[in-house]
TrEMBL record:
Molecular function GO terms recorded: cholesterol binding
Main location as per UniProt: membrane
Subcellular location: Membrane
Gene Ontology CC terms, in alphabetical order: cytosol; perinuclear endoplasmic reticulum; plasma membrane
PANTHER family: OXYSTEROL-BINDING PROTEIN 2 (PTHR10972:SF194), OXYSTEROL-BINDING PROTEIN-RELATED (PTHR10972)
Signal peptide per UniProt: none
Domain PH: 1-60
Protein's recorded name: Oxysterol-binding protein
A Gene Ontology BP annotation from the UniProt entry: lipid transport
Keyword set, alphabetical order: Coiled coil, Lipid transport, Lipid-binding, Membrane, Phosphoprotein, Transport
Family: Belongs to the OSBP family.
Compositional bias per record (Low complexity), positions renumbered to this chain: 207-222
Organism, scientific name: Spheniscus mendiculus (Galapagos penguin)
């Protein structure tokens, strides 16, 4: 391949001289070196053997080259003159110090010998027996001292020999690291310059009106981003070139009319009855719709007219390199970012967006079976990610004490309240009450790292959901979100990891797996699969779908053990009835691409409302300026608010120091509407709603609210 091709396709490097070459089966090869592993697949056994032979020969050559470089001083890699001078100066200093030690050794030996002679003469004198014993002890100590001094000098000489022997190897390693760092900096800077030139070229090009052209470019961007994503420099990354992660189970759709006859051919581990899958009586029937059905729309018709659009996003350019080069490895929440990277919503409002498909929980209330109810809860947990597929912009970091309310009690039967309860680390508490029979609460801490090419967002914390009538208490956590192509290319977001939903009353469980995107996989992108099982481990439903489109549920009527995979794991085969759609994503509003890809709910979240608390996110001035398209003013206002928050934090730290000096306790910041308690179910310390907000809103008494804006 040419170097240009290698630049686009090379996924990393591995040191063959220390690599292990293994064969898994007739076509697979495994290369491993420490934490890095490559899985390669040949087309045939003959081709695999050719590759193994070539790799073994290359490994032998690499070992010979490494040995030659260690032994032959003429093979030393070129280093700069300053590095050589520094190395020679160090060795010269070590030699000088060794000569000083040798001189000291000679003096010690000379004076030590004289001391021993003097002591021997004293022993020969006629002295009292007690004095002779003491002189003899001193003589022995002097001998030990001389032996120790000689050992020290010999150790120093050995150290210098080792330093001279290994100095060339150390110099080569240091020079290689320096070159790699310089090459990385030059590559990132070049990519940033190319990105800026492409932006200018795009702004100067005529607009593309054809929808097919837009689809083609999006597809290309997805392919490029997938290839680029594969070359992460994480030493613990395990690469699968020609293999894909096989599912842990297989589903086969059964015909309910012939189930009993065909079921006898399977060695069932668990069985169900197809007549339980009653279309007329089941709650699932009302969920087999892509969106609100007509009756639901009439029931949930808003009483208040909400806005359906916001000002279009301005087309401002930004020099990414000037910001990104100082951000690698830092915590995202501690990086001063301009609003150009933001969307005009706060993190509290993004958290509230989890309620976009709240009707799933309203339907779950009507379920008589806890496993059936678990299916709706699982679909709800997946639906919260549907708004992120195009939302690559960063929400505003809430100020400490900032709140956000969403009162839809009259329209949809629920009211929601969020509060930023901690700033470092940033943590938000959320509480939702629905008069239709459920309560949801959570405390989420966002941990995020910028890795140069991608941004990892790890939500930490548990989500609790309790149904009033049954007392079923569900707990789960969120998966990791990754934003790719931060420096150059089309930004795209992926969700990966596993969610375990546990009903702590009935002990039912649902294990959902979010499959990470892979260019080599034949699976549907953004795939989510899972199984709902009861307390005894018996599987009842199979969940399947994608986190950006829909989730389906299939009732299991038969399960059996299938064939053993190449990894030695035995797969489970589930025979299921036809799947039913529990959730399907609402279409985005018209012109969404120019409105930050906001959904219908997101468009209303920052709509001005009266009677809200003075700490509400709707009243945040920098966010409001950005929504209006006045980004320069928004950046100035954002800096003012952040500096005001820093001043409050410095004052609080000074108060803490003063209290410590006086021997008094200092509680620090205390959330206004939430309080920390140990959760009775999980045993974790979590912020829960303590009440008082909606009463204060009714009275319009906000005297306890801090001045944060």
């Amino acid at each position: 391949r040419t170097q240009a091709e290698m630049a686009h396709t090379c996924r990393g490097t591995i040191n063959l001289s220390t690599a292990h070459i293994d064969t898994e089966d007739s076509c697979n090869i495994v290369l491993s070196n420490g934490g890095r592993t490559y899985h390669l697949k040949a087309n045939s056994e003959v081709e695999r053997q050719r590759w193994v032979t070539a790799l073994e020969l290359a490994k032998a050559k690499a070992i010979r080259m490494r040995n030659n470089q260690s032994d032959d001083s003429g093979d030393e890699e070129p280093a700069s003159q300053s590095d050589k001078s520094e190395l020679h100066g160090t060795l010269k200093t070590l030699s000088s110090k060794l000569e000083d030690l040798s001189t000291c050794n000679d003096l010690i030996a000379k004076h030590g010998a004289a001391l021993q002679r003097s002591l021997s003469e004293l022993e020969n004198l006629k002295l009292p027996a007690e004095s002779g014993e003491k002189i003899k002890a001193v003589n022995e100590r002097a001998t030990l001292f001389r032996i120790t001094s000689n050992a020290m000098i010999n150790a120093c000489r050995d150290f210098l020999d080792l330093a001279e022997t290994h100095s060339r190897k150390w110099q080569r390693v240091l020079q290689y690291e320096r070159e790699q760092r310089i090459r990385l900096e030059e590559t990132i800077e070049q990519l940033a310059k190319q990105h800026n030139s492409l932006e200018r070229a795009c702004r100067g090009a005529p607009g593309l009106s054809s929808s097919s052209t837009g689809i083609t470019s999006t597809a290309k961007g997805s392919v490029q981003s997938a290839k680029g994503e594969a070359s992460d420099e994480d030493e613990e990354t395990e690469y699968f070139d020609a293999m894909e992660d096989a599912p842990a189970f297989i589903t086969v759709t059964a015909d309910p009319k012939h189930h009993r006859r065909s079921g006898s051919n399977l060695s069932g581990a668990s069985e169900g009855h197809p007549e339980d899958w009653n279309l007329e009586d089941s709650v699932f029937e009302s969920s087999n719709q892509s969106s609100y059905n007509e009756s639901t729309c009439k029931d949930l018709l808003p009483k208040k007219r909400r806005r359906t659009r916001i000002p279009d996003k301005p087309n401002y350019s930004l020099n990414l390199w000037s910001i990104m080069k100082n951000c690698i490895g830092k915590e995202l929440s501690k990086i001063p970012m301009p609003v150009n990277f933001n969307e005009p919503l706060s993190m509290l409002q993004r958290l509230t967006e989890d309620l976009e498909y709240h009707e799933l929980l309203d339907k779950a209330v009507k379920c008589e079976s806890s496993t059936e109810q678990m299916c709706f809860v699982a679909a709800f947990s997946v639906s919260s990610y549907s708004t992120t597929v195009h939302r690559t912009a960063k929400p505003f970091n809430p100020l400490l004490g900032e709140t956000y309310e969403l009162d839809r009690l009259e329209e949809f039967g629920f009211r929601s309240l969020c509060e930023q309860v901690s700033h470092h680390p940033p943590a938000a508490a959320h509480h939702v009450y629905s008069r239709r029979g459920w309560t949801l609460w959570q405390e989420i801490t966002i941990a995020s790292k910028f890795r140069g090419k991608y941004l990892s967002i790890m939500p930490l914390g548990t989500i609790h959901l309790e149904f009033h009538s049954s007392g079923n208490h569900y707990v789960w956590r969120k998966v990791t979100s990754t934003v790719h192509n931060i420096i150059v290319g089309k930004l795209w977001i992926d969700q990966s990891g596993e969610i375990e939903i546990v009903n702590h009353k009935s002990k039912d469980k649902c294990q959902l797996k979010f499959t990470p995107y892979s260019y080599f996989s034949r699976d549907v992108p953004r795939k989510v699969t899972g199984v709902v099982s009861d307390a005894d481990g018996k599987a009842h439903y199979v969940m399947s779908g994608t986190w950006d489109e829909k989730m389906e549920c299939s009732k299991i009527v038969q399960s059996s053990h299938g064939s053993t995979s190449t990894e030695g794991k035995q797969k489970t085969v589930y025979q299921t009835l036809s799947p039913k759609v529990l959730w399907k994503k609402y279409p985005l509003p018209e012109n969404a691409e120019n409105m930050y890809f906001f959904s219908d709910l997101a468009l209303t979240l920052n709509e001005p409302e009266e009677r809200v608390a003075p700490t509400d996110s709707r009243l945040r001035p920098d966010q409001r300026l950005m929504e209006s398209g006045r980004w320069d003013e928004a950046n100035v206002e954002k800096q003012r608010l952040e500096e005001k928050q820093r001043a409050v934090r410095r004052r609080r730290e000074a108060e803490a120091v003063e209290a410590l000096e006086e021997g008094e306790d200092y509680e620090g910041y205390i959330p206004l509407w939430f309080e920390r308690k140990v959760d009775a179910v999980t045993g974790e310390l979590i912020c829960v709603y303590k009440g008082g907000y909606w009463e204060a809103k009714d009275k319009q008494d906000w005297s306890t609210c801090p001045d944060i804006f």
